[in-house]
Amino acid sequence: MLEIKNLHARIAEDGTEILRGIDLVVPKGEVHAIMGPNGSGKSTLAYVLAGRDDYEITEGDILWNGESILEMEPDERAAKGVFLAFQYPMEIPGVATMTFLRAALNAVRKKRDQKELTTPEFLKVVRAKAAELGVSDEMLKRPLNVGFSGGEKKRMEILQMSVLEPTLCVLDETDSGLDIDAIRIVSEGATKLRSPDRAMLVITHYQRLLNYIVPDKVHVLAKGRIQKTGGKELALELEKSGYADFTGKAA
Amino acid sequence: MNVTPLKTKAESQLREQFDAAAANLPGSGWVSTLRARAMDAFTAEGLPNRRIEEWKYTDLRERLRDIPAPGTAKPTDVSTADLNEALGPLAAIDAERIVLVDGAYSADLSKISAEATTIELMSLAAMLEKAPPWLEGKFSADSGVVVALNTAFMSDGVLLKVRKDQDPGKPVLLVHARTASEPSALAVRNVISVEAGGKLTLIEAHVALPGAARGALSNVVTDVTLADGAACDHIKSLVDAAGSTHLATWNTKLGKDAVYRGFQLTASPALARNDINIIFNGEGSKLDLSGVFLARGSEHIDTTLVVDHAVPHCESRELFKGVLADRAHGIFQGKIIVRPDAQKTDGKQMSQALMLSPDAQFSSKPELEIYADDVVCGHGATCTEIDADLLFYCRSRGIPVDEARAMLTESFVGEAVEKIEDEDVREAIETLAIGWLRVG
Predict the structure, then answer these.
(1) Does the beta-carbon distance from B398 to A78 stay under 8 Å?
(2) FRET pair for B343, CA 20 to 30 Å: which of A191, B135, B226, B402?
């Protein structure tokens, strides 16, 4: 279970306060959506969960399975099962996708006291999951994300998520920049990972992604706080009314 | 003769060493004259210093305080196993092997299986003793004081020729092994020629065997001539933890429709200066030069190249990447000259340094001298730290910070290493570079 308690965070460099007291609980087995206008703090929340050091936590706590993760480095969090699918996945020239996946998987397995996979075992795991997401062998040989289209990069994020088998999946604007077909492939990939052992936090600006990844709960984030919580129907209401009620501005 | 007195102890030592050794250096007749002339040129100028533009960042007058005694070429009991260990991954390459031990050609350790109809190999010392008149024309003109010193002191090296339209079929590994337990100064000259239509992959490996003294000084000049339609991949590897000073010069002349791909890995000398001088003498030729320089501590690596487009329709590419840690200093100077007649020249140059420490230094000086009006030429230089966003991305996937940094550093140098076409050679060089990066 993910518990976020009165979380305050600011940008380390200039002290701008972004998160102003977030309270949120996501039990295992559930998918929660965070919706909100631009600048509401959605991406900051995602980064703070993953441990990016551009932000300072000034108050509050984040507990994953009852344990505070605030003091953990990003790689320790990954080993504890935290995974962030980036809004803008990074390109790493000179590192083949397979090499990267293998380094990541072996690193988390090592920290989880699982044995490292042999090359044939690893290839088998990756190829099966890649096929489901329409990721070709050719893509796996290329340097990570280099020259990939927006849709290919997002599929690669979901592939990494499925290979690393996290228990807390945070999807940051996974639908941004994608056409409907790409959203469907990516969402199906993410939906396959729904399980009683796994919590998911889906961050999105638009409701459409939630047609594919149906959430158990929807939270509206604005001005750095959760303003409203409801069922999946809340997303549909927001689609009609916009975020004006929460930002104090006309839509 | 100008009689500017030599100013420093090192300069006087060089003159004295020459006067003492001249009679015993191989060759007489024109060879002696050549040496004496070169030594006079040195005596007139002294060691290069910061007042000479090309030596601004590598002031040898300042840095060379004490010149070790010239190495004595004596056969040492080096085993192939010792040699292979020092060569590391390069030893596994299926290659013709030529070995120089402390600057002297070793027939015992060299293994050449190619037919004499394909390649011709001679020890330079032996040829200097015979001093046939044609040999004089094989040496490039002394392009500076370092080459002049090499000409004066050269004790041995190899003459390697690939015959017309021939291809030895496998790379030629030219090993420069240092074994001497006392610091010594070596001057080695190699003369490589690929005749018309011939092909050669040459790997120059500079290694120190266990027990080799720190503080050695080597001056290695490689004169390369590619005739019309010849192709040569020239790879150099210097991975040296033994605190040596390495002065190396490639003087390469390209005929018509020739292809020359050069790569230099320079890792951890105390001081290295790599001069690369390329001249296009025939149209339609291509040059692709790349390199990786790796330095930590107070190591100093200077790569200075001059690419002279003397004729039209040639293409040149340069990509040099450096990783600099601690207080290391990397230098890249790249001059591209495009002569008035050299229309349709296509030249691109890039140098990039990755700084692993705030105290490391990178000096980059690209120079374009263009006298023709219909050319495409460009250059760029960057100096960066490891990208914090990329580092976070890797760590968010569970990769520990040290490994993530290593991975990103490897990917940085990988772009240059990928330029090596021969897969076995590329992998060996990659292994050597990664070995260096992972130690830090």
Answers:
(1) yes
(2) B226
